[in-house]
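C-alpha cells for chain A. Residues wanted.
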C-alpha cells in the first residue's frame, strides 16, 4: 500500500488507462502531423513528449506520495504568479487594471487548487485523469475536426469541434471510470461538466491575459509549451472546481 492509501493494483490499472489514452493520442498526432512541415511536426512531438513526462510525474506524486503533489501544486502556483508579473513588466505601457484582474483571479483559483491538492488521493487522481483527457483530446479533436473558431483574437486554436470533442470524450471517460472514486451518477455528471468548463475557462483566461500584454508565451521553462501557466492553467482552474464540488457534494 502506498502513502496515498491506494493499492499497487489500483495505481497500475489507472496508469495503464493513461498509457492507452496517450497511445491513442500519439497515433492521432501522427496522422495530424504527417503532412506538416518537419519543424512544425517536430515542435508538436516535443510538446507531446514533455506533456507525457509531466503527466507521469504528477500521476505518481498523487498516487504514491501526496505530500509531493502538494509541494508541486505550490511550485506551479508560485511560478505561475511569477510568470504573470513577468508578462506585465514586459510591457511598459501595460494596463495595470488587467494585471490586477488577472492577479486576483489566479489567486482565488490558486487557493482552491492548493486545497484540492490536499483532498482524498482517489478523488484527485480521478479529476486529474479527466482533466488530462479533456486537455489532450480537445486539442486532437480540434485539429482533426475543428473548423469554426471560438475566440480567434484571444486563442486562435480554440474551436467548436475541439471543445465538443474534448467534452464528449472527457465526460464519457469519466462515467466509464467513475469507479476510481465512486459517487452518485448525478453528482458525478456535475463534477465532470464543471471540470471541463473550469478547465476550458482557465485556458481561455490565461490566453486572454497574454494577448492583453502582447506576448506569445509566459516563459520558456517547459519545452514545447508557453510556460507553467500555459501548461497548468486548466489544472489550476479545474482543481479549484473539484474543491468547490467537494464542499457542496462531498
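Reply:
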Amino acid at each position: 500500500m502506498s502513502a496515498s492509501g491506494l493499492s499497487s493494483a489500483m495505481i497500475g490499472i489507472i496508469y495503464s488507462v493513461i498509457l492507452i489514452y496517450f497511445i491513442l493520442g500519439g497515433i492521432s498526432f501522427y496522422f495530424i502531423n504527417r503532412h506538416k512541415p518537419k519543424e512544425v511536426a517536430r515542435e508538436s512531438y516535443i510538446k507531446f513528449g514533455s506533456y507525457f513526462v509531466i503527466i507521469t510525474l504528477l500521476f505518481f506524486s498523487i498516487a504514491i506520495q501526496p505530500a509531493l503533489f502538494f509541494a508541486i501544486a505550490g511550485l506551479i502556483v508560485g511560478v505561475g504568479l511569477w510568470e504573470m508579473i513577468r508578462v506585465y513588466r514586459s510591457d511598459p505601457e501595460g494596463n495595470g487594471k488587467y494585471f490586477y484582474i488577472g492577479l486576483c483571479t489566479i489567486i482565488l483559483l490558486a487557493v482552491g487548487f492548493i486545497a484540492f491538492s490536499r483532498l482524498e488521493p482517489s478523488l484527485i487522481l480521478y479529476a486529474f485523469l479527466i482533466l488530462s483527457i479533456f486537455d489532450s483530446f480537445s486539442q486532437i479533436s480540434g485539429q482533426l475536426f475543428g473548423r469554426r473558431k471560438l475566440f480567434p483574437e484571444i486563442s486562435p486554436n480554440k474551436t467548436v469541434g475541439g471543445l465538443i470533442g474534448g467534452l464528449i470524450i472527457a465526460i464519457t471517460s469519466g462515467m466509464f471510470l467513475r469507479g476510481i472514486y465512486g459517487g452518485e451518477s448525478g453528482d458525478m455528471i456535475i463534477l465532470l461538466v464543471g471540470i471541463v468548463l473550469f478547465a476550458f475557462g482557465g485556458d481561455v483566461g490565461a490566453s486572454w491575459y497574454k494577448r492583453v500584454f502582447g506576448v506569445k508565451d509566459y516563459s520558456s521553462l517547459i519545452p514545447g509549451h508557453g510556460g507553467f501557466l500555459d501548461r497548468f492553467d486548466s489544472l489550476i482552474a479545474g482543481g479549484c472546481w473539484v474543491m468547490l464540488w467537494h464542499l457542496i457534494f462531498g
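The chain is about 75% helix and 5% strand. The first strand starts at residue 149 and ends at 151.
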